[in-house]
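Allow me, if you will, to draw on your knowledge of protein folds for a short while. Thank you for your consideration; the sequence and its tokens are set out here:
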Amino acid sequence: MFIFSGFRDMDASATSATHIGPVMQETSEQPSDEAPRGSTSVKQRKRRRGGRASCGSVYLSSRGNSIRQHQGILQEGFIQYAMDKHHQTDNPDGIVNLGTSENKLCYDLLHKRLTKPDMLHVEPSLLQYADWTGHAFLREEVAKFLSHHCCSPKPLRADNVVVMNGCGSLFSCIAAVICDPKDAILIPTPFYGVITEDVHLYSDVKLFHVPLDCEVGIRIKHFHLTVEKLEAGLKKAKQEGWNIRALILMNPHNPLAELYTPKEMIAFLEFAKRNDLHAIVDEVYMLTVFDESVTFHSVLSIESLPDPQRTHVMWGMSKDFAMAGIRIGTLYTVNTDLVEALAQLGSFHGLPGTSQHQVAQLLRDRDWINNEFLPENRRRLKNAHSLLTRELRSLGIPFLDRPAALYVWADLRKYLNKSSFEEELSLWRCFLRHKVLLSCGQAFSCSTPGWFRIVFADQQPQLQLGMETAFPYVVSKNYF
């Protein structure tokens, strides 16, 4: 898997050797040293940095070399995209990015709000050291915001809020304080692949996969998560000698865009309680539900959690507020021991005081959020989703039709010459040669080859160009 420029949210990532569970041999394939025309090969880049492609650097520790060489199969794609980004006038033949989960639909709304005078505020306390869990004024606004939008039975407390520079930092720090090196965390697959690096690079914590199969049958949902599957996964992990410390759940899900019901979430949390597991619940897409007839139910809305001390809920600004570059992630937990441990790591992952002020001002502006931004954002997401899914239907490409998130999970299995992850990777590279970057299933540890995540949260010209540029070649199988 791949993190670009330090941002967790660069979704162009892939399965690496740090996962545990059913292994797909094809996923071990690394980017070819013979990169497509116009790109730089892995070996060339390493030589330019003074290192060696196959050996560790004498300047680094074993851990440093492991971190440096931790590369995913989609790194070559994102590097090519970064060097050849499409621009309507400056680079019209460049690569269109439908692979990275960013909302690019609302810059005009954000620019107008973020440039208002109340955002331009500086006072001494913002320039000095502060509480490493976040300034009190920001944690207060986060607690109020989550109380309202998560429909919590009681007002949430600011003392239970931890703020860091992104949810990736939170995943990393939580893993460090609830797990020992070589411990493992249970996670259903497919899942947002960069979590592997989040918990592994610093803390040497592993993810144990619970594969959700692409099932077929009447009233059977593809990639359906059940307690029975979690039980089977945990049993297998214990048989193999792994010490499982936690369960990671995502709602809405990435990459499936699945919304879990309160009944399902309570069942998953009860499973965690029975087995003394922490439940880390990622709700970073909670306000991206764009169908008015569908309601998202947060874990924080549950009247009585099965195990409050081991239930921890994450949320951030990247998805719901279309601000992936503003690195802010929040955690809500009533476990004071966890909060205190995270505070010790906060100095490595804090936010600038002025940024905290701006985020607090934004969250404080309920009128703008509820009457301007969220309704318009949902409308634009719905239109973009309709555009993409209409194109997929016209091409005869199946997909999971879900009313949330910034992407669809599309089934391109019929375009593989054979069912293998090597073929999936070949198809992904063909898209890239035709100037469209997608995310293939291997990036999410999908157990079935041929599924791709396609991001629709972009301006209409970009989205249409991406669909028209490469997909006709795929449908005709004229892509080699």
Residues 19-107+378-475 form a domain with the Aspartate Aminotransferase, domain 1 fold (CATH 3.90.1150.10). The two ends are 26 Å apart (CA to CA). The longest helix spans residues 366-394.
